[in-house]
Automatic annotation (TrEMBL):
UniProt remark on cofactor binding: Binds 2 magnesium ions per subunit.
UniProt record similarity statement: Belongs to the ITPK1 family.
Cofactor: Mg(2+)
Residue ranges of domain ATP-grasp in the record: 111-317
Catalytic activity: 1D-myo-inositol 3,4,5,6-tetrakisphosphate + ATP = 1D-myo-inositol 1,3,4,5,6-pentakisphosphate + ADP + H(+); 1D-myo-inositol 1,3,4-trisphosphate + ATP = 1D-myo-inositol 1,3,4,6-tetrakisphosphate + ADP + H(+); 1D-myo-inositol 1,3,4-trisphosphate + ATP = 1D-myo-inositol 1,3,4,5-tetrakisphosphate + ADP + H(+); 1D-myo-inositol 3,4,6-trisphosphate + ATP = 1D-myo-inositol 1,3,4,6-tetrakisphosphate + ADP + H(+)
GO biological process: inositol trisphosphate metabolic process
Native source species: Phaseolus coccineus (Scarlet runner bean)
Binding site for 1D-myo-inositol 1,3,4-trisphosphate: K24, K65, H161, K193, N289, G293
Protein name according to UniProt: Inositol-tetrakisphosphate 1-kinase
Length: 317
C-alpha cells in the first residue's frame, strides 16, 4: 500500500495545473510521470497562461515556471479568490533566485555544521562596469583570482547561463556589465546537485570544471575562458572523478535542503554544491535554480508524485 492510500478518499482525484514553457513541458511532463501520477490520484493538467485561470480550474494545486508580469498578475488574482488552491511557489519568493546575489544571501545566514562540515558560499562581488572595476572593493573583500564572471540575472533569459573563467585583472577587460565575480574554488571536478521537492530530497553527482593548478595560473595571463550550460554538457567522466567522488553525508544534504527550503520559503529548487579540494569539510553553495530538470533524476516520477500528494493531502511538514 502506498504511503498515501489511507489519506485519499475512495475515488478522489486531485487536479494539479502546470504552467511551463513548451521546452519545459516536453522535458518535465514525460508520459511516465503523467501515468504514474494518474495511478496515484493526481491529474496533471496543462494551463494556458493566456486564458483566465477561472475558466481552467478547479485546481487543488498549481505548479509553474513562468514569470512574466501578466502571469504573476493572473496567479495573484486567482489566488485571492481561491485561497484553497496551493500555489507552488509564490512568485515574489521565486524571484529571489533570479539574481545571483540575493540567491546566495539565504545561505550566508544558515548556521550548518554537521560532522565537522560547514556550508558557505564563495567570496563574490557584484561589479556594474567590469571594464573599470573597483579594484579596491575587490581587494578589500579579499577576492582572489581566478574568478568566474556570472551574469547577475539568473532568470533563464538570454545570456543568463553565459559565464567566463577569468584568470587575472587583465581578463576583466573582456567582460560586459553587470557581472558577479565569484571566486573559483578547486573542487575536484565534481558538483553535487541537491534536488528538493518539499520534504523530498535527492542528491546526485555531476561533472564540473576541473581544478586549476598553480602552474597554470602562473602561465596564463589576461586570458578568459567562456563557457555556458555546463550542467547540460556531456557526461563523460575522464579519470572517473565523478564516479570516485564520495557523496556528502546524507544528514548534511537533508539539513541543507531543509534549512534552505525554510529560509527561501520555496518547495521546488535545486542547489549546486562543491567541496573545497584544499579543505574537504568545507562545502560551498554556488547556484540555486528554481524548478530545475527533475526528469534527469532516477525515479523522478514517484519523487514528484509523492511531493504533489504531500501538498494536496496537506501532509507537508
Ligand atoms: N565558484 C565556483 N568555483 C568552481 N566552479 C564553479 C563555481 N561556480 C560555478 N562553477 C562551475 O560552473 C558551473 C556553472 O555555474 P553555475 O551553476 O553558477 O551556472 P548556471 O548557468 O546557473 O548553472 P545551471 O545550469 O545549474 O543553472 C557549475 O556547475 C560548476 O561546474
Ligand atoms: O533544462 P532542464 O529542464 O534540464 O533544467 C535546467 C533549467 O532549464 P529550463 O529552462 O528548462 O527550466 C535551468 O533553468 P533556467 O535557469 O534556464 O531557468 C536551470 O534551472 C538548470 O539548473 C536546470 O538544469 P539542472 O540544474 O537540473 O541540471
Ligand atoms: Mg548550476
Ligand atoms: Mg543556475
Amino acid at each position: 500500500m502506498s504511503e498515501f492510500e489511507s489519506e485519499i478518499a475512495e475515488g478522489e482525484r486531485y487536479r494539479v495545473g502546470y504552467a511551463l514553457q513548451p521546452k519545459k513541458v516536453k522535458s518535465f511532463l514525460q508520459p511516465s510521470l503523467l501515468d504514474y501520477a494518474k495511478q496515484h490520484a493526481i491529474d496533471l493538467v496543462q494551463i494556458d497562461p493566456s486564458t483566465p485561470l477561472e475558466q481552467q480550474g478547479p485546481f487543488h494545486c498549481i505548479i509553474h515556471k513562468l514569470h512574466t508580469p501578466q502571469w504573476n498578475k493572473h496567479l495573484q488574482q486567482f489566488s485571492a479568490t481561491h485561497p484553497d488552491t496551493a500555489v507552488i511557489d509564490p512568485p515574489d519568493l521565486v524571484s529571489r533566485l533570479h539574481n545571483r546575489v540575493s540567491m546566495l544571501e539565504a545561505v550566508t545566514h544558515l548556521q550548518i555544521s554537521i560532522e565537522n562540515a560547514t556550508v558557505g558560499v564563495p567570496n563574490q562581488v557584484f561589479v556594474n562596469e567590469p571594464k573599470a572595476p573597483d579594484f579596491d572593493k575587490i581587494e578589500e573583500l579579499g577576492l582572489r583570482f581566478p574568478v568566474i564572471a556570472k551574469p547577475l540575472a539568473a532568470d533563464g533569459g538570454d545570456g543568463s547561463h553565459e559565464m567566463c573563467l577569468v584568470f587575472d585583472r587583465d581578463g576583466l577587460n573582456a567582460l560586459t556589465a553587470p557581472t558577479v565575480l565569484q571566486e573559483f574554488v578547486n573542487h575536484g571536478g565534481v558538483v553535487f546537485k541537491i534536488y528538493v521537492a518539499g520534504r523530498r530530497v535527492n542528491c546526485v553527482k555531476r561533472k564540473s570544471l576541473g581544478d586549476i593548478s598553480e602552474e597554470r595560473l602562473r602561465t596564463i595571463k589576461g586570458e578568459v575562458l567562456p563557457f555556458s550550460r555546463l550542467s547540460n554538457l556531456g557526461v563523460e567522466d575522464e579519470g572517473g572523478a565523478v564516479e570516485k567522488a564520495e557523496m556528502p553525508a546524507q544528514c548534511l544534504v537533508d539539513e541543507l535542503a531543509r534549512a534552505l527550503r525554510e529560509a527561501l520559503g520555496l518547495n521546488l529548487f535545486n542547489v549546486d554544491v562543491i567541496r573545497d579540494s584544499k579543505e574537504p569539510t568545507r562545502y560551498l553553495v554556488i547556484d540555486i535554480n528554481y524548478f530545475p530538470g527533475y526528469a534527469k533524476l532516477p525515479s523522478y516520477e514517484p519523487f514528484i508524485t509523492d511531493f504533489l500528494l504531500d501538498v494536496v493531502c496537506t501532509k507537508a511538514d
